[in-house]
Specification:
The complex is a heterodimer of chains A (458) and B (195).
Chain A (H helix, E strand, L loop, with lengths): L4 H7 L2 E4 L5 E4 L2 E4 L5 H10 L9 E4 L16 H17 L3 E2 L9 H7 L8 E4 L13 E4 L2 H10 L1 E4 L3 E8 L8 H12 L7 E6 L1 H4 L3 H9 L8 E3 L4 H7 L8 H11 L12 E6 L6 E3 L7 E3 L10 H7 L14 E4 L7 H11 L9 E4 L4 H9 L2 H8 L2 E2 L20 E4 L14 E4 L2 H10 L5 H6 L1
Parallel strand pairs in A: 3-4, 3-6, 4-5, 6-7, 9-10, 9-12, 10-11, 15-16, 15-18, 16-17, 18-19
Antiparallel strand pairs in A: 1-2, 2-8, 13-14
Chain B lengths: L5 E4 L1 E4 L6 H4 L19 H4 L21 E4 L11 H9 L3 E4 L4 H9 L3 E4 L2 H13 L5 E4 L4 E4 L2 E4 L4 H9 L3 H7 L1 H10 L4
The chains are: A alpha/beta (458), B alpha/beta (195).
The structure holds iron/sulfur cluster.
Chain lengths: 458, 195
């Protein structure tokens, strides 16, 4: 029978099907971090049981860590305690922790791929909704709540209902100035913030195939922003080339066997999806969001749609039908699990090299991991950033969610490469405009929103 | 988990769409390492001003509305997977949330914490909002064994996964079940090849 990529992986992980339709699904990798794990550890301990397969867990500290002076004790008492609790729990249960100070530390969705922990055909979970990022490798990866973190700790399994499948095909070639971030912001603007609810999405088409692994991760990362359970892309040579040589990737004969298996993971020609959507890159320009959910996005040269939600526009201080070009902004945040990888930093550096940010704008560049940070320094990107007046920080989630001190002040505008523009996401009253790294960089230079294509040409 | 069978209560109306988990519990309150006490910061930035004073125009600060049931606009619980959102709603005292659409992860988190999400049609949601507006003390009745929700004369059936229904009725959770099938899990592992 013809199967979708999703079906092939799901079916290979069914431990048991329950009456009523739910499946017990085996989980291959469990990533944990400081914010959504403490109550799960406490729960397991309260039940008096052991962690079932501790070797399948990898931990890091990312959500609640400072992005300056990480070698010093965390100043804020509750954050310090939360991070310390992770350290204590990992030590007590013998779980590898890439915590502060470790050369592998970083945002959980950045380190999994770069360490070769994320691989095709796996089931991967983490107590964080952007776990969908790992789907770029052709894995079933999705975010879970803390009760489920506890379930996986207790049994390495989850009881799940099988999602419906959706395929989104994007064909064509991206034009200069547009990136994978623009593809996904465009898709969400068309399908809305709830358009993917209940579905697992496969991305396909020539535009997706042409993307690097890092660019594919940006797409899968934001699947959750249209409500989808997750997103995935069939593995191909690009995937294999990326994985080869990574720290924990298979090697030698094992790698050869693995590659053969990975290349068998694709949707069969006759496979049927519950829903299909088709888009073309000709319609995709550099995007920006104007509202308070990621579905409220438009081409940067468009005007805000006339029927837009007034609560959102009031919050943002915008009016329907106005253009955002020329709007003054105060902050630029380049970071988060959506766009903090080395290719993102290179693209930004290339754009700002030898230039200087507008004087009224503060710019933070937060690398996704220690390895990204080290690579950026090795390539001299840190110097380019410094000379441009950008603040190059240490890795963490930072202003993506404003849990640490990296917050955008009340009422001020921030062009952000992250994934959520909800009210208060980057700090109480903060106004977030989501965009690609180069659109954000162009805004940092100009001090206002610009069409990055005009900067590239100039 | 506390079993949930029948609930009769007045309800708190929140006719706002796309209420995301960052509104339900902002990230800066996620630093705790236990499950308790999140109710104090439920809807923090809608509920209190920057000085910590209650905002009079927010429904949770309006004494005429109270109860164990929250009625909310479409796509409730979208955004982050933080289970703290479900804990905050439960800790505040809600046991049932009614909406015409729930975000996936939130729905699962709610069910895992003894909080019942009931999906009704847009029309039914509208009727309920109107009934509460006409009479804030309007009682809603939830009958989980029969999967019925009623408001005055009106009654609707609602869907719930059979397994999850049993969990709620008995106050059991998934771990109890998963631990009972450990032999199956070990047998699966012995067959599986992971690359
Ligand atoms: S960077 Fe932002 S979206 Fe990504 S894991 Fe951290 S908080 Fe979540």
């Amino acid at each position: 029978m013809s199967k979708t990529l999703f079906d092939k992986i799901w079916d290979a992980h069914v431990v048991k099907s329950l009456p009523g339709g739910r499946d017990v699904i085996y989980i291959d990798r469990h990533l944990i971090h400081e914010v959504t794990s403490p109550q799960a550890f406490a729960g397991v301990e309260a039940r008096g049981i052991d962690i079932f397969r501790k070797e399948k867990i990898v931990a890091t500290a990312d959500h609640n860590v400072p992005t300056r002076d990480q070698h010093l004790p965390i100043r804020e008492a509750m954050s310090r305690k939360q991070v310390q609790t992770l350290v204590d729990n990992c030590a007590a249960h013998d779980i590898p922790l890439y915590g502060l100070g470790h050369p592998y530390q970083g945002i959980v969705h950045v380190i999994g791929p770069e360490l070769g922990i994320t691989r095709p055909g796996m089931t991967i979970v983490c107590g964080d909704s952007h776990t969908s990022t790992h789907g770029a490798f052709g894995s079933i990866a999705f975010g879970i709540g803390t009760s489920q973190v506890e379930q996986v700790m207790a049994s390495q399994c989850l009881i799940l209902d099988r999602p419906k499948t959706m395929r989104i095909t994007v064909d064509g070639e991206l034009s200069p100035g547009s990136s994978s971030k623009d593809i996904i912001l465009y898709i969400i603007s068309k399908l809305t913030a709830a358009g993917g609810t209940g579905y697992f999405v496969e991305y396909a088409g020539s535009a997706i195939r042409a993307l690097s692994m890092e660019a594919r991760m940006t797409i899968c990362n934001m699947s959750i922003e249209m409500g989808a359970r997750g997103g995935l892309i069939a593995p191909d040579q690009v995937t294999i080339d990326y994985i080869r040589g990574k720290k924990f990737a298979p090697q030698g004969a094992e790698l050869e066997a693995a590659e053969q298996y990975w290349l068998s993971l694709y949707s069969d020609d006759m496979a049927v999806f519950d829903v299909e959507h088709h888009f073309h890159t000709d319609d995709i320009a550099p995007m920006i969001t104007y509202g308070t959910n990621p579905g409220m996005g438009m081409a940067v040269t468009d005007n805000i749609p006339s029927h837009s939600d007034t609560k959102a526009l009031d919050y943002m201080g915008f009016e329907a039908e106005e253009s955002l070009l020329g709007k003054r902004i105060e902050h630029v945040f380049i970071g988060s699990c959506t766009n903090s990888r080395i290719e993102d930093l290179r693209a930004v550096a290339q754009m700002v090299q030898g230039k200087r940010k507008a004087s009224h704008v503060s710019v933070m560049v937060v690398p996704g991991s220690k390895q990204v940070e080290a690579q950026a320094k090795a390539e001299g990107l840190d110097t380019i950033f410094r000379e441009a007046g950008f603040d190059f920080r240490e890795p963490g989630c930072s202003a993506c969610l404003g849990m640490n001190e990296d917050k955008i002040p009340q009422g001020e505008y921030c062009v952000s490469t992250s994934n959520r523009n909800f009210e208060g996401r980057q700090g109480p009253g903060a106004r977030t405009l989501l965009a690609s790294p180069i659109t954000a960089a162009a805004a940092a230079l100009a001090g206002h929103i610009v069409d990055v294509r005009t900067v590239i040409k100039a | 988990m506390k079993p949930l069978v029948h609930i009769s209560s007045s309800a708190v109306p929140m006719p706002i769409e796309n209420v995301d988990t960052d509104q339900i519990i902002p990230a800066r309150f996620l630093k705790a390492i236990t499950r308790d006490g999140f109710g104090d910061n439920l809807f923090r930035d809608w509920r209190y001003d920057r000085g910590g004073e209650p905002k009079q125009d927010f429904v949770l600060n309006n004494p005429i509305y109270a109860g164990e049931i929250l009625v909310a606009g479409k796509n409730f619980g979208c955004g982050s997977s933080r289970e703290h959102a479900a804990w905050a709603l439960g800790d505040y005292g809600f046991r049932v949330i009614i909406s015409s659409f729930f975000a996936d992860i939130f729905k699962g988190n709610a069910l895992n914490n003894g909080l019942l999400p009931i999906t009704v049609s847009d029309q039914a949601l509208h009727t309920i909002f109107q009934a509460i507006e006409a009479d804030p003390s309007q009682e809603l009745k939830v009958n989980l064994p029969e999967q019925k929700l009623s408001c005055g004369e009106e009654e609707w059936s609602f869907d719930i996964d059979g397994y999850k229904k049993q969990c709620l009725l008995n106050g059991h959770d998934d771990i109890d079940f998963l631990l009972s099938i450990k032999d199956d899990i070990i047998a699966f592992e012995q067959e599986q090849v992971i690359y």
